[in-house]
Amino acid sequence: MEIRNAFVGHPERPTTEEVDTALGPSAPLWYEFVEWAHAHGAEGEEWKCASPKYGWSLRLQHKKRNIVHMAPCPGYVHVAFVLGERAVAAAKEARLPRHVHEELEHAPRYPEGTGLRLTLKKHADLAAIEKLAQIKMAN
After folding, report:
1. What DSSP designation does 66 have?
2. CA nearest 60: which of 27, 76, 75, 82?
3. Is residue 36 classed exposed, middle or buried when 0-12, 13-18 and 19+ CB atoms within 10 A define those classes?
4. Whether this model's pTM surpasses 0.85
5. Looking at the 3D structure of the chain, how many domains does it have?
6. First vs last Cα of the chain: how many Å apart?
7. pLDDT per position as a tens digit, 28-52
8. Rounded to whole angstroms, how far apart are CA atoms 56 and 17?
9. What does the alpha-carbon distance between residue 18 and residue 100 come to, in Å, rounded to a whole number?
10. What is the DSSP pairing of strand 109-110 with strand 44-48?
């Protein structure tokens, strides 16, 4: 999946208005997930830009651990998790949509964990992403 971060080359952290414009109809999903994450244990958030060629992303944290990275893209949210062994095992046992299980099966393995990348475009995508965030916070 090609990631088209809306803020590639953007010199400063994007404003709320810029995020809303970039996400378009997906903007309410962005805010709904962030609000849900904070209500369920995420206490930190930080905008990061590793390099201007990758753009900006919002990192949500729980107990100083990164839970999820969210990148605003034109019309959708790119969501990335790095899951450790216990979280991968829990995700495999969880009731998640088939496409999420398939993505997990083919996700790249890194020394720090399994890199799972998903797209948040419609409300139906939200439940699986919330479940994965719950799994990540618990493991």
Report:
1. E
2. 82
3. middle
4. yes
5. 1
6. 27
7. 999 999 999 999 999 999 999 988 8
8. 14
9. 29
10. unpaired
